[in-house]
Amino acid sequence: MMPEFPNIILYAIPFFIISMLLELYVSIKENKKTYETKDAFTSIAMGLGNVFLGFFSKAIVLLVFMVIYENFRIFTIPFAWWSFVLLLFADDFSYYWFHRISHENRLFWASHVVHHSSEHYNLSTALRQTWSGGFYTFIFWLWLPLIGFHPGMILLQMSVSLLYQFWIHTEAIDKMPKWFEKVMNTPSHHRVHHGSNPLYLDRNHAGIFIIWDKLFGTFQPELRDEKVVYGLVSNINTYNPLKVAFHEWLAMGKDVFSGKKSVFDRVKYIVKPPGWKHDGTGKVSDDLRKEWQESVGSRQSAVGSQQPTRTAIMNEVEEEKALSSGSAIGNN
């Protein structure tokens, strides 16, 4: 029997609106240019489109999950408090790998890039969601109905994760308490994730718990000496929702089907990271990070006795990581 769980995202829409208005009020009062009107309306439009298309994509997801659950599940996990606790971590683990692969594989980046396309960072940015990803990114969660979690539970927890991630899209909160920063995803951690700075690229993929990034080597603290620059490495400079939603799909299709290249190279344009090119002229995030390190190293040599930029930043990296990681869950 299919249990009835509420669509908490729809119920949360008034909360989203009130929170954005409050943030806007605070930013105006403190004379901060946190919001840009056209950008905010584009983000809201992307969010509304995501909700509308979600009626179709979630029907597909539910159908696939139900087929696996009814025919192939290994166990039957009951509806109990402890099963929801297990699901909280299992779902977040799935989200981490979905999110990480979405930055390392162009097929998944084509839908996820939407969320990173704004050059501003505020609560409206959280609403800038994909119109295409819901139809195929659910594959990272297929193992959950297989081991026995009911599809209704899974969809509910996925919504809880999305709801949690709304509040971390803000500059109004600097740092949370240290114990919270060690374990949970926070505005500070997620600002890093939205940075186009080479140091910050492809870091902090957490949904709810930052522990996964610390366990799998993708954690990067926000540094005082490296202000986050939001947006993409190459910004798209448009407020057109259709272009925001599909620009990377068009660019990927052009790379796959145009020009003289081998079949293997055409496939690589789908599976390789964003920025990769078959002729060796492309730069992925690791290349950009290495170039940045070499660049600040050169500036360090040029300033001589002055405080070296790279040393200051790298010392802060190590200091922040020592304070915030250790055992990812303990050491309050």
What is the structural class? mainly alpha
Radius of gyration: 21 Å
Unreliable parts: 304-308, 327-332
Distance between the termini: 43 Å
Work out the helix count.
Answer: 13
Order of helices and strands: HHHHHHHHHHHHH
Residue share in β-strands: under 5%
Gross morphology:
globular
Mean pLDDT score: 91
Q: Give the proportion of residues in helices.
A: 55-70%
Largest sheet: none
The count of β-strands is 0
Describe what you observe in this structure.
This protein has 332 residues and is mainly α. It has helices spanning 8-29, 37-72, 81-104, 106-116, 143-147, 151-164, 178-183, 187-193, 211-216, 241-257, 263-271, 285-303, 309-324. The chain is globular. The N and C termini lie far apart (43 Å).
Blueprint (SSEs and pairs):
Layout: H1 8-29, H2 37-72, H3 81-104, H4 106-116, H5 143-147, H6 151-164, H7 178-183, H8 187-193, H9 211-216, H10 241-257, H11 263-271, H12 285-303, H13 309-324
